[in-house]
Amino acid sequence: MMNWNMTMKRNKLTVLIPPTPDNVNASEWWPVKSDVNWIETVYSDNKPAPSKLQGVDVFIGTDFTYEMAKFADKLKAILIPAAGYERIIADALPNGAVVANASHHEAPIAEWVMMVAVALDHKLLQSHKTFVTGLWDHWPGRYGPYRELFNRTFGIIGFGAIGRRVAKLAKAYDMEVIASGRSNNHSQIAQSLGVKYCWGKQGMKEVLSRSDFLLVATPLIPSTLNLIDEQALASMKKTSYLINPARGNIVNEYALYQALKEKKIAGAAIDTWYKYPTEETDQPRPSTHPFWELDNIIMTPHHSGGTDGTRNRRAQTVAENIDRLTSGQPLINVIDF
Questions:
Q1: What is the mean pLDDT of residues 290-311?
Q2: Per DSSP, which regions of 103-256 are E strands?
Q3: How many CB atoms lie within 10 A of CB 164?
Q4: Residue 336 domain-assigned?
Q5: How far apart are CA 163 and CA 118, in angstroms?
Q6: 110 in Cβ contact with 165 (< 8 Å)
Q7: Average pLDDT of span 312-322
Q8: Domain with 11 in it: what CATH number?
């Protein structure tokens, strides 16, 4: 009995977290089964003060820098309560430290994708804006007929969890779905979903040129930075729409703005951006280019996956990894840098 208690005491992890909501303790917010030493501290620009990493076994956060590494003398794991890991500097990681993420956002993001696809195609925001002022400009008797999603082509770049979930919903609208990825690893699951799957550069070209709606659903890694550039946008149909809930910098900022301004594509819905707040009260514009002046874009503040369900599922995965680390089991969702 004594040996068991000593082992448990020795394995008690110190975990660094941002403050939990009022009247919610850390073990409720991150539902661990293990006994944990929680350290709460304010994060600025998604990061704690670097010195707060000293003596910490587990850091829950989305960013890791060289300066933070200087103090990470005991760090065993960085647990990201999100999908993206592009703000973790791999070269700064201490020897032996593991990074694991937690996605679980594909359901609400897919709902957002189909919502904006319909809204773009039916000029929903423009119709509302004019009709509430008493104008009938978007009445079909004056505007003309609208298009429909039925029997159109939905293209997906990146066939991970988000891409597959969107494919299921698009198929429910009786759309043709085509997708592309870097390799043919997803061919079998695509076939099971009734999706035509292409891979490599040629596959991406086909998806770009054939799609009426183009979803960007790939992670931001060095090879996908500016993946959708001026040339890619030029290969899209003039009547097509681009939808990006992935990461802003996958789509070249200037090229996208010019394509929308010059009506080289019909429109876009963008949820992920190029500039973000770094403090609690700052209100930066999301781009150096005035997308907000355009009439063919839907802009949202990176909220497509920001639901209670997403947060709860991610917290459960983070908590499971803390329990696994405590008991010496392999972590799940480990990132291979």
A1: 97
A2: 153-157, 176-181, 196-199, 213-216, 241-244
A3: 21
A4: no
A5: 17
A6: yes
A7: 98
A8: 3.40.50.720
How many Å apart are CA 232 and CA 217, to the nearest integer? Answer: 15
Instruction: Residue 193: name the closest of 218, 246, 221, 156 by CA.
Output: 156
Task: Extract the tokens encoding 255.
Answer: 């090229």
Residue 229 lies in a domain: yes
Instruction: Reply yes or no on whether the pLDDT at 8 is more than 50.
Output: no
- Strand ranges for 105-152 from DSSP E: none
CB 231 within 8 A of CB 201: no
Grouping H, G, I as helix, E, B as strand and the rest as coil, residue 40 is strand
pLDDT on residue 280? 84
What is the C-alpha separation between 32 and 323, in angstroms, rounded? 6
Domain that holds residue 80: 2-104+308-327
> How large is the average pLDDT for residues 159-163?
96
Q: Which helix (H) or strand (E) holds 298?
A: strand 297-299
The CA-atom distances, in angstroms, between 161 and each of 67, 109, 192 are 33, 10, 14
Given a cut of 60, whether residue 6 has pLDDT beyond it is: no
- 46 plus 125 within the same structural domain: no
Average pLDDT, the chain: 95
Per DSSP (E only), the strands in the chain are 13-17, 36-40, 58-60, 77-79, 98-100, 153-157, 176-181, 196-199, 213-216, 241-244, 267-270, 297-299
Same domain assignment for residues 22 and 133: no
pLDDT, position 324? 97
